[in-house]
Design a protein that fits this description.
- The complex is a heterodimer of chains A (113) and B (114).
- Chain A is built from no helices and eleven strands.
- Chain A has 113 residues and is mainly β.
- In chain A, the strands form two sheets. In chain A, strands 2, 4, 5, 9, 10 and 11 form a six-stranded mixed sheet that branches.
- With 114 residues, chain B is mostly beta strands.
- In chain B, 36% of the residues are buried.
- The model of chain B has no long low-confidence stretch (mean pLDDT 92).
- The chains are: A mainly beta (113), B mainly beta (114).
- At the A-B interface, strand 5 of A face strand 5, strand 9 and strand 10 of B.
Chain lengths: 113, 114
């Protein structure tokens, strides 16, 4: 059972554009939602994370929007740059799970110059 | 952010041999470490949860005798792939949990079994 569904699988955006990646979850016990960025041949790097007590969190060009009632959250990359080209994974976990992450399927983002 | 180091980053071995991969948290103590496996263009698949001083908890379908995990200290966990075969070739990634629940990943170890 896939508890975190991520879309789209791939995304092409022009430099300066906005990349939007969406995730939906099923388990209402989840209380921590991180996003990871992964470059080829490297481990994932924590990008930004949110807890369900806030609806939005912004760090630089990266923003998470969170909709608790819809059980959805999304990552927005503003002013996308070629260096943002990577695979992005959303994830979810909850404290009782010992921080064991459930990952989305990933989105390959390509930013064209 | 916190640093998690994995070693080796790449390893090639012959079929039937065993390979050990180390995961170290360099600037924090990690009571819990996680081991993942990732196939090309796929998401990360959790293999096991490693707690310092106790036996690892394996996910369903992961052979514990095949993938030996040892978490000897608060900064080191090791994954040993025993009697490796070509189908074990994959990208293995560890992560470590900080005291406040943040998770940081290692750089990954690419295993190729000939």
């Amino acid at each position: 059972q896939q508890q975190v569904k991520q879309s789209p699988q791939s995304l092409i955006v022009q430099k300066g554009g906005i990349s939007i990646i969406n995730c939906a979850y099923e388990n209402t016990a989840f209380d921590y939602f991180p996003w990871y960025q992964q470059f080829p041949g490297k481990g994932p790097a924590l990008l930004i994370a949110i807890r369900p007590d806030v609806s939005e969190k912004k760090e630089g060009r990266f923003t998470i929007s969170f909709n608790k009632s819809a059980k959805q959250f999304s990552l927005h990359i503003m002013d996308s740059q070629p260096g943002d080209s990577a695979t992005y994974f959303c994830a979810a976990t909850f404290k009782a799970a010992g921080n064991k992450l459930t990952f989305g399927g990933g989105t390959r983002v390509l930013v064209k110059p | 952010g916190a640093v998690v180091s994995q070693h080796p980053s790449r390893v090639i071995c012959k079929s039937g041999t065993s390979v050990k991969i180390e995961c170290r948290s360099l600037d924090f103590q990690a009571t819990t470490m996680f081991w993942y496996r990732q196939f090309p263009k796929q998401s990360l698949m959790l293999m096991a949860t490693s707690n310092e001083g106790s036996k690892a908890t394996y996910e369903q379908g992961v052979e514990k005798d095949k993938f030996l995990i040892n978490h000897a200290s608060l900064t080191l966990s090791t994954l040993t792939v025993t009697s490796a075969h070509p189908e074990d070739s994959s990208f293995y990634i560890c992560s470590a949990s900080t005291a406040i629940g943040e998770l940081f990943f290692g750089e990954g170890s690419r295993l190729t079994v000939l």
